[in-house]
Design brief:
The protein is mostly helical. Helix content is about 65%, strand content about 0%. Helix 12 runs antiparallel to helix 13 and helix 25 runs parallel beside helix 27. The longest helix is centred in the first third of the chain and has 28 residues. The protein is globular and about 85 Å long.
């Protein structure tokens, strides 16, 4: 009887509200809506208590299940209590609730059940945002919900969500927020799990900010783990090596490996993955990383650890990106150039020669890796005899240092392409596309045909990035005709040139005629040149000291309505200053550098277009609409971080 009367009250209140809403000019509408909300809440409460009391006061019958304790959730016929109020009353309650709550009012958002937060909704919302790569929105949602409160927190779910957020912050290098969440969870009394430390080490490794600050964080994290009694596992050690290596502390990275060897945990074993992280640490040292990489590789061979394809790819990257700082007492080294393509350069033990080894003899297996890299000045580079290395020549230290600045020479002293492919065959490792792409960047142009044979032998399908590297190699070695002919090979592999391909071809356009042909081809294909392509044309024009070329480029910007960037304008200004200085040196009888510029500036054609260029530059910037400024990513955050770095305030508590 009470339920039927309640349903009638709900229907009557709903009709009154609808009639009031029809008259928007009523001044007491807000007050009446508030009163109806109060009636609605009291009504829901009375219905729930009445239903509960009716079901709880019922006497047990013979049909009841004796295994079920209590009768709060079961009615007379096994129907849930929530259905005892009747279908009509439940529909009226739902309609009444949506009519009195408005999404435009702040208090309605707070009290309406659909807008209330709970743990399941918070977890679902955060993980959906993380899945869509919206880390900032996920962090804002998590922080705001915790500050507002309004529901019972479950510590396990909060820790689970926070762990996912820290892992995502680590992937993008947002180290400040990762440590902030970590410190907040410690203040809440959450149980810190070992995988949290792994994420924090990865955050330091991927952070683009100050390395010194990140190194302090790494040391404090290790101290925190020791204080909590957490023994590092294999994943922790690898994360430490990666963090130390990418922050530039290469000796600390090698020291972590020595700690792994000294660990009593039988599950912690040094593997190829460990040496892969060490090779990453070597790559971080651009000045001496090549030497460290060779020593690391030799140590891996002594420990009889079989490298994988990732090890070879990282070693090739070390050859490409890192140089070597030679000892002061070095006097001779094998020549990096090969006079005959078919001539065999012998290798020493372990297949890779030890000419870069810091010890005159073999490395001992029990020696620490830190000791290996710290004795550089006390040992000479061992050189094989004339019989084994017929290309040995006497060179000074400065000549050798200049020689090893090129990756082709660094690969040559290790045996060249032939020795590298032999090593792959010995370890029964098939090269992948990344391996071949790395090889293209460190071999000489005459060996690119050998690279193509490796592709066919292993059934590798090259992508457009591979051919871009091939064309870039030809351009760098001033074989621009071969670079333009490489375009014809793309059709054999069903590939289309991308915008980077056209940018490399722009670097191969030595004259304005070549540039016009390339621009016409791009127009036929419907490709609009960007600032990088136009900048490639300008590089060749400035290198040739051709003001006519530059004048045509300025006109192309006006016709195509292209805005130049700051690099383009700065390069033109540098060209003007160099030419102006050369003209003054010629008038004063001084020596002109480069020497070919002296003859160029005295020609009549050059002076004609030089005057046209100076006149055109006066109005050109206004016609193209100014200069496009390049926005620096994280610029504002970087400035704030610099201020905090000066104050030496670190985030670890």
């Amino acid at each position: 009887m009470i339920l039927q009367r309640s349903a009638c009250i709900v229907q009557r209140c709903s009709q009154q509200l609808i009639s009031k809403q029809g008259n928007r000019t009523s001044p007491s509408l807000c007050f009446e809506k508030s009163l109806l909300r109060l009636k609605y809440r009291l009504l829901c409460y009375s219905i729930s208590t009445t239903s509960s009391s009716n079901s709880s006061d019922r006497l047990p019958t013979l049909d009841d299940d004796p295994d079920i304790f209590g009768s709060m959730s079961v009615g007379n016929a096994g129907i849930p209590v929530k259905d005892d109020i009747g279908v009509a009353a439940s529909h009226e309650l739902s309609k009444f609730a949506h009519s009195i709550y408005s999404p435009d009012e702040a208090d309605d958002k707070l009290f309406k059940p659909d807008h209330r937060w709970n743990m399941d909704r918070l977890k679902r919302t955060v993980f959906n945002l993380l899945r869509d790569k919206k880390l900032k929105e996920a962090l804002d949602t998590f922080t705001e919900v915790l500050q507002e409160g309004g529901f019972q927190f479950h510590q396990g779910n909060i820790s689970f969500i926070c762990n996912a957020l820290i892992a995502e912050c680590a992937k993008v290098g947002h180290v400040k927020m990762a440590f902030k969440l970590f410190n907040d969870m410690k203040k809440r009394g959450a149980t810190i799990k070992p995988n949290w430390y792994t994420s924090l080490f990865n955050a330091c490794a991927n952070s683009p900010w100050d390395s010194e600050e990140n190194l302090v964080r790494i040391d404090r994290l290790r101290a925190n783990m020791a204080q909590k009694g957490i023994e590092p596992n294999r994943t922790h050690f690898h994360a430490m090596i990666k963090a130390y290596g990418r922050c530039g502390a290469i000796e600390s990275a090698f020291a972590v490996v020595d700690d792994m060897r000294a660990s009593d945990n039988l599950e912690i074993k040094i593997s190829a993955e460990t040496f892969n992280f060490l090779l990453q640490a070597c790559i971080s040292d651009r000045m001496k990383g090549f030497r460290h990489a060779v020593v690391t590789w030799e140590k891996m061979m002594i420990m009889k650890i079989k490298p994988n394809i990732y090890s070879y790819n990282l070693f090739l990257r070390a050859i490409r990106e890192c140089s070597i700082q030679l000892p002061k007492n070095l006097k001779q080294l094998p020549s990096a150039r090969r006079s005959d393509k078919n001539e065999d350069i012998s290798t020493v033990s372990n297949k890779f020669p030890e000419i870069l080894s810091p010890f005159p003899g073999k490395l001992k297996e029990n020696i620490g890796i830190v000791e290996i890299i710290s004795l550089e000045e006390n040992n000479r580079l061992r050189v094989e005899s004339q019989a084994r290395f017929p290309l040995i020549q006497q060179r000074t230290n400065a000549e050798l240092q200049a020689l090893l600045n090129f990756p082709e020479n660094r690969l040559a002293i290790l045996g060249g392409l032939r020795a590298f492919t032999t090593q792959l065959e010995i370890h029964k490792i098939a090269p992948d596309l990344k391996t071949v792409t790395e090889l293209v960047q460190i071999v000489s142009p005459t060996e690119i045909t050998d690279i193509m044979m490796i592709l066919e032998a292993h059934n590798l399908k090259p992508d457009i990035h591979f051919f871009n590297m091939v064309m870039k190699k030809y351009v760098r070695w001033n074989q621009k005709k071969n670079a333009r002919e490489t375009i014809g090979i793309l059709g054999r592999y069903h590939l289309n040139p991308n915008i980077m391909t056209w940018g490399i071809l722009a670097l191969a356009a030595d004259t304005w005629i070549d540039a016009v042909k390339l621009l016409k081809e791009m127009d036929v294909l419907g490709i609009t040149p960007n600032e990088h392509i136009m900048g490639g044309f300008l590089v060749n024009a400035c290198r040739a000291y051709d003001p006519r070329y530059i004048v045509h480029l300025l006109e192309e910007h006006v016709c195509r309505k292209l805005k130049p960037d700051e690099v383009f304008v700065d390069r033109i200004e540098k060209f003007q200053s160099d030419v102006h200085k050369a003209m003054l040196d010629v008038e004063c009888g001084r020596e002109v550098r480069p020497r070919r510029l002296e003859a160029i500036v005295q020609t009549e054609e050059f002076n004609e277009y030089w005057m046209k260029l100076k006149l055109r530059l006066k109005t050109w910037l206004k016609e193209v609409g100014g200069v496009t400024k390049q926005e620096i990513p994280w610029g504002k955050d970087y400035d704030e971080r610099l201020q905090r770095l000066k104050a030496k305030k670190y985030d670890i508590e």
